[in-house]
Write a structure and sequence with these properties.
The complex is a heterodimer of chains A (396) and B (134).
Chain A: E1 3-8, H1 12-24, H2 26-30, E2 34-40, E3 44-46, H3 51-54, E4 65-67, E5 77-80, E6 83-87, E7 92-95, E8 100-102, E9 105-108, E10 112-114, H4 122-125, E11 126-127, H5 132-144, E12 148-154, H6 169-184, E13 190-195, E14 199-200, E15 203-204, H7 211-223, E16 227-229, E17 234-238, E18 243-246, E19 251-253, E20 256-260, E21 263-265, H8 267-270, E22 292-293, E23 296-301, H9 314-334, E24 345-351, E25 355-361, H10 374-392
Parallel strand pairs in A: 1-2, 1-9, 2-5, 9-23, 11-20, 12-13, 12-20, 13-16
Antiparallel strand pairs in A: 3-4, 6-7, 7-8, 10-21, 14-15, 17-18, 18-19, 22-23, 24-25
Helix pairs in contact in A: 1-9
Chain B: H1 13-19, H2 21-39, H3 44-59, H4 62-95, H5 102-108, H6 112-132
Classes of the chains: A alpha/beta (396), B mainly alpha (134).
Chain lengths: 396, 134
């Protein structure tokens, strides 16, 4: 009987991994010894990291969408059906339609869910850019605001040493916001306040989740007239009075509350019982090197779904994917996994509307910030406008 | 945004490296090789080319990138689709113990994916005809 590899999740992690599995295991796939199946809840693939550009009216939804089938190698069986239940003990999943899919190897790449409703008043009064519809709403507000105060908050998961979604995004969007308002000619009448919580993974009272970057941020913000505030952990929001209250006892008014909201795993992962993460966040306990789910050697966890201390971002999946592929291939061929993930994350940060800064870090080494450049910006724009789709196909 | 970092400075190994006799010999060799080119003004075009590249970068904007990347994605996606079809078709045909009979081939036409592929091929030819017509 053929060995069955099941990839759950049609985001960037699942897509590039499914394609790379077919490439890596092509002799076995073409002879029918191995099958690769992808389950996704959508027939379309969205370039989710670019939703932050939607907030500045730089992209429309259709520009960020491709048919999922067009991104997959034809050897992959693609099924549009949402996973309703993971049964890790029995090596099978059940979908919303009631179908059961057994597997010999499973890749869980189901992403995470922005959950502003987990903070009182945030869903009603706050804005964010991690999904398309909220990003559209934020875009409309940013395009119309003439004066007032834009207050920026960042919320980390309660699970120790797990970051929020896309670590650099709050800085990127703060700098983009500054330039966007300058272009509109209203910047002088609008105060921008960037805040960061007291606890950010292993750091305390910083402005970013890595120390070196944290130390250079004040001079950048000061040069642009952006106010910043440490130790503001968003506790609740009063939508009527438009006041954000911190767990530290502070209260701040706003006209627009641009937040990085709480996040959690998808329902099926939450309900699987495999996670011990506090606050019902659902992060799957993941081996930091092999990327296997704790207690289940044939299950691999990628990207946002795991409990690793690295960014929940596509640039993380890009470096985890080859490890997952190598480990499944070597397990099939020689009986044990051979590759180890070193925590590497590579990305190109958007530093304002034009400049970009390539960055990389791993478990041992933090980002070393360097001056953003126009070339870096053009590289990021190239990723946004075309290279991403080559990455999804596993070509880059 | 130069305030983001301190400009890179040569490490302490820099001056020591220049004092290394082998390094000095290498630099002298390079200088000797480059000297005739310098004397004959052969770097003028290289400098002009660098200037042209810098001009190109300065002139490139979001709209330029959008057009270039649309062309890239179009070519990449077309090559990917055709390459996939050729690879998988070759594999399936190569794995068959015996070539299918004509009757078996005709039965393939009942497969909706085959009909969709034929439809795409015929449509491709029609559009090719439109674009090459008067």
């Amino acid at each position: 009987m053929a060995k069955r590899i099941l990839v759950v999740g049609g985001g960037i992690g699942g897509t590039m991994t499914a394609n790379s599995l077919v490439h890596k295991l092509y002799p076995e796939v073409s002879s029918g010894e191995v099958t690769v199946t992808m389950l996704s809840d959508s027939p379309d693939h969205y370039y989710k990291p670019a939703f932050m550009y939607v907030a500045f009216n730089s992209f429309s939804k259709n520009e960020l969408k491709r048919p999922q089938r067009s991104l997959l190698r034809p050897e992959i069986q693609f099924v549009v059906d949402k996973v309703a239940h993971f049964d890790f003990a029995q090596n099978r999943v059940r979908t919303q339609s009631g179908a059961i899919y057994g597997y010999d190897y499973l890749v869980v790449s189901t992403g995470c869910v922005p959950s502003p409703e987990r903070i009182e008043g945030l869903k009603e009064a706050g804005d964010h850019f991690y999904l398309h519809e909220p990003a559209r709403q934020l875009a409309d507000r940013l395009a119309r605001i003439e004066k007032g105060r834009i207050f920026i908050t960042v919320t980390f998961p309660k699970t120790p040493n797990v970051p929020h979604q896309c670590g650099i995004a709050p800085i990127e969007t703060t700098l983009m916001l500054d330039e966007f308002l300058r272009r509109r000619g209203v910047r002088e009448k609008i105060e921008i306040v960037y805040t960061y919580p007291t606890v950010s993974q292993l750091l305390r009272n910083c402005l970013f989740l890595q120390k070196q970057t944290c130390e250079v941020l004040p001079s950048i913000f000061e040069s642009k007239g952006i106010r910043f505030k440490r130790g503001f952990t968003l506790g609740r929001v009063d939508p009527d009075r438009k006041i954000a209250y911190s767990e530290e006892g502070d209260e701040q008014d706003f006209d627009i509350l641009m937040s990085t909201p709480p996040i959690r795993a998808v329902d099926a992962v939450l309900d699987s019982g495999a996670s011990q993460a506090p606050n019902d966040e659902g992060w799957l306990p993941t081996d930091r090197e092999t990327l296997q789910l704790a207690g289940h050697e044939n299950v691999y966890v990628m990207g946002d779904t795991g409990d690793l201390p690295v960014s929940k971002a596509g640039g993380t999946c890009h470096n985890q994917s080859p490890v997952v592929v190598d480990n499944i291939a070597s397990s099939l061929r020689i009986g044990y996994p051979t590759a180890a993930y070193d925590g590497k994350v590579i990305a190109v940060a958007q530093m304002g509307l034009e400049a970009g800064m390539p960055l990389w870090y791993d478990y041992e080494n933090d980002v070393e910030p360097h001056p953003p450049t126009k070339l870096g910006g053009l590289l990021r724009k190239s990723v946004n406008r075309g290279l991403y789709w080559a990455v999804a196909r596993g070509l880059v | 945004m130069t305030e983001m970092s301190t400009p890179a400075t040569p490490g302490s190994a820099g001056p020591a490296a220049f004092q290394d006799p082998d390094t000095q010999a290498g630099i002298e060799h390079l200088a000797a090789k480059v000297a005739p080119l310098l004397q004959a003004n052969r770097f003028d075009n290289v400098v002009d080319l660098l200037s042209l590249v810098a001009d190109g970068i300065d002139m490139t904007d979001e709209r330029t990138i959008e057009k270039l990347m649309a062309a890239f994605e179009g070519a990449m996606a077309a090559g990917w689709t055709l390459g996939n079809a050729a690879r998988m078709a070759g594999s399936v045909a190569g794995n068959a113990a015996e070539p299918p009979s004509l009757f078996q081939l005709a039965r393939e036409l009942r497969d909706p994916e085959v009909r969709r592929g034929l439809h795409a091929a015929v449509t491709f030819l029609r559009i090719l005809g439109r674009q090459t017509g008067p």
